[in-house]
## 1
Amino acid sequence: NLTLDPDVPLSSPLQFKLVYKTGDVPLVRVEENTGEIFTAANRIDREKLCAGIFSENRCFYEVEVAVLPDEVFRLVKIRFLIEDINDNAPLFPSTVINISIPENTAINSRYSVPSAIDPDIGVNGIQHYELLKPKTAPKRTFGSITNDQGQNVFGLDITETPEGDKWPQLIVQQILDREQKDTYVMKIKVEDGGSPPRSSTAILQVTVTDVNDNRPVFKENDVEVSVPENAPVGTSVSQLHATDADLGSNAQIHFYFSNQISSLAKRLFAIDNTTGLITIREPLDREESPVHKLTVLASDGSSTPSRATVTVNVTDINDNVPSIDTRYIINP
């Protein structure tokens, strides 16, 4: 669709040349004399070309073609829409997926299973998950797995996010008893919607854990301390104490700051995960912030940690020079 003035004499025959930067690997080539466009030897890979673009109609590859000779010179931009093909199988992050479930888990409780990843989009992306029934138990149905006594122990459900992503969830369908059976090994399958579909499987191993039925208890839930603003880095701020009535690994307490504390507090203070000792990480400045509230969580690995609040009052020292603020009264 080039509109060329027929009255303009050309110094040489019409030519079309692809324009690209040094180091670029062109995915197409242009026939110089005819302007015909061909694919090049380099493979067109939508997932590499448009990583992070999940819309089927948003992946474009653009080139510029120079029209010569100089008398009719112009640059023509050509945009290619790269269509997805089902050239990737969905894959789980690991060939063996481990999930721990406590033995006192209520029936119908759900546990997230790590989802598979498929760089393809649309119908070529992930469409279906299922638990595969073992060949040794032909009477069992898809979507569930049974123990050696033939009872349905687990099921699989798929939840879909508003963005269209599908997330597998394991459902506890029977009461668990670690003393009777502490490990269940299943196979989970993921499949995309291509034609033909691609799929992969992973081993899903569920470990039934002993019940940790006692939370850590802080000696004090609210602590208030004062620290001078010139306290050196490494100074102890507060030593927290917590106890746990459980035994063994269920009584090992891990201290950490809540995500709800301010970014400034996270920067200024550190906590020892094992001992609960809070120290100064960076120099304090009362003029910047005179009070810091530190929410500390103590967890023994159970689902609900215990909480304590440490209020740090930064006391003033004489570290600022007074300044004179000159003001004027003007007769309007």
## 2
Amino acid sequence: GVILLPITILGMFLGGFLIKKFKLHITEMAKFACITFIVAYLLNLLYFTCSCEVLQVAGLTAPYSGLKHLSSPKNSFMASCNADCSCKLDQWDPVCGDNGITYMTACFAGCKSSTGMGKNMVFHNCSCVKGRVYGLGNSSALLGQCQRESCTKAFPYFLALQTACAFILALGGTPTYMIMFRSVSPDLKSFAVGIETLGGRVLGGLPAPIYFGALIDETCLKWGTKNCGGSGSCRVYDTKAFRNVYLGLIAGLRAGCCLLYIVLSILIMKRFK
């Protein structure tokens, strides 16, 4: 928000300045808006190159190190190292082992003791953790999920790409509104603005959280459990599936918008030629 808001404001003001500076005709504004939207759409496709690996959770997305699973299809978190620990499957208090793998709880890591308090808590003698130095059973684990290096490396690239897309979209935003004002009869301008706002809410603002949320939920690998027994929030997502579903849906919707922009430009150029 701190980065995108000033960039968006700058793009909108610059778009208006260009219209006034070069005294663009409505046909030229239509071409300008269409080109900026298509360029932003092509840049948006580069989001697919931003990769972030799935969180490595023992028994869920990664195997227990060199250990035989004692699991059923409904319970893949049990192994020979934690079979006698009576771990609860509905708990989620992740720890990061020395091997870089996250465990649902310290119990599933087979840890026997702990030191420290709060965020600084360290668990010791973890029978399921195969450390890089000590080997199996003599390793420790830290409270919290393990960090993913690829996510940290990809974030600046993602932020720069998002900034460029936001600026280009904002640049064409002002010409789009000016097209509406100049192509509609003076007595229908307020009505046109109302229809445009209504269309955005009905087609985008209201239903989008529903179908986006439904698709995102399909990529969840581990659901939390509420105290009353119902399903809670998602603990671990399949990151690659999440990316493909989320960005794929956006790309599909914007492809339709690009087609409409091209049709709009052709109609305006024919009408105001």
## 3
Amino acid sequence: MVLRGYVPTSEETLQMLAALRLQSLNSDFSTHAAFPRLEELFPPHVLHARLPAPQHRTTAKCRGARLRVGLLAGGLWGQVLAKQRAEQDQRLWGRLREEGASTMAAIVEKWKLLQGMGRPEAMAAYVALVREWPGFGSTLFDVDLRESPLEAGPQRLWLGIGAKAVSLYKPGELEPLDSFGYSRISSFGASNSSTFRLSVEDRDLLFETSQVDEIAQLLNTYLTSTGTQQPPQPQDLATSPASSDPPLLPQGLCPKARPWLHQPPVGPFPS
């Protein structure tokens, strides 16, 4: 979750998390220690965000002789454009390598400060840092908010389902845009295979998502576990009936909310 950007925090904290992971994997710093790849320690998207935006290429103006459109598209001018793209890509990759080396150096310096810390301590410190995010313990789903009284158009959000409330986050932001306790939810369910509806008091929110069933089942689980009566469901909504058996609550960050979570993690921490 940390490596994929689903734990919003500062770059300084991300570097400390990487250092704690190194301490857990390799114990105290040593030049002979086996180093994981940077992308196994630090979110790659943070490095990519430092790169300059691609510049818009302008078409050169020909003065004098007129060149045919076919020549411009597939001849000499096409070769010039291809060369420019290759040079720009090479510069970007060079910049990315520089940023990666700088980040790894900062992580190693923090790792050196952890000398003497045991693996259990490193793991506990790692989790303590991650728990500082208010959304810790929630299951996150990528959704597009299609309809809302407060928004004019579709908006990409995280739908966080936790033990006490449902929250909406802008991706990467620490605090939720809004949060709804379960007692405020009047109904929820699937309008169709890709649209999930959540009715909160006098508000109706429609989310486009590929995980309609997962969201409905998880909401049902938390409503049952908190003792909240299952909200009445309109005829066009399809949610699973509440089970009479005590539900098993999901643990940790975003359990089983995404296919990639079934991949084996690298090292002792969830990736």
## 4
Amino acid sequence: LEAPRQAPALMNLTLEELIAGLQNGFRHEVLEGNVGYLRVDDIPGQEVMSKLRSFLAANVWRKLMGTSALVLDLRHCTGGHISGIPYVISYLHPGNTVLHVDTIYDRPSKTTTEIWTLPEVLGDNYGADKDVVVLTSGRTGGVAEDIAYILKQMRRAIVVGERTVGGALDLQKLRIGQSDFFLTVPVSRSLGPLGKGSQTWEGSGVLPCVGTPAEQALEKALAILTLRRALPGVIQRLQEALREYYTLVDRVPALLHRLANMDLSSVVSEEDLVTKLNTGLQAVSEDPRLLVQVVRSKETSSGPEDETEDPPEMVSEVPEDEASRRALVDSVFQVSVLPGNVGYLRFDRFSDASVLGVL
């Protein structure tokens, strides 16, 4: 394994040199749709972070605070300093209290260190009601993996991309005897983020919530955020449809309450949304006929087979001969007896009362 690069002693670096080094590992911008983008290629340690807190708050976080969602790109982050973890997690932690996020075991000293979020941050925390997506790749390693895993376990972020490398938090380069050969070994170990006991990402890597090739992860993340941005409007339209059209009116209040309180934090696709809505609504209504479906417009259809038919016209005149009348009834009403002696009646259009009276 390649040994970690040794950074110059921090005491010998000026503030300008620290800022220049930080800017090489940080990139931020606001994308279309008011989505904040922060790419982090290296996680500085506590000493650097504490010296640069004011610079980061003024030049990075302040510009991202007004965005409606955030993408944290860790696809190129192969390591970092353990002591820098709280400075990343704390800005995304929505709570007002400190949170124990990990416990680190140090092999040389045989000691453990608890990692907590900071009591306070400069500026504001990123809003709890805003979505966060973390991008990962097969090269994402060490401290970056721990950050991705912690945010995933906190249910604070959706991880999109590839399974991470499953490396070690910290490596040490050891000379073998007096030779020119060196051995790089892991010297720190996560004992389980958020007190999850033996559950850890080391060895196995962090499994993304949505798997996709790393080079397509940002595009996928933006598509997910577009869907999630539309969720409040979808819920509102469903509530309006239930109020106006659902025939089991005594169950409507319970359905509206279920929709208003449904947890959609894990929804990352239209299929997820439809499944969650149908499961929740049918459980409340006890009505298997109450179904939510994705309806695509003709503009987005892939071919003639996807085009929806025009709605049938209302019948206003009754044919004179008996055979034509029977054919008309058969075209309007479908009647059958299903297994279990269940009657089935389907009609797709209504007619005037005078027409129905004749028929």
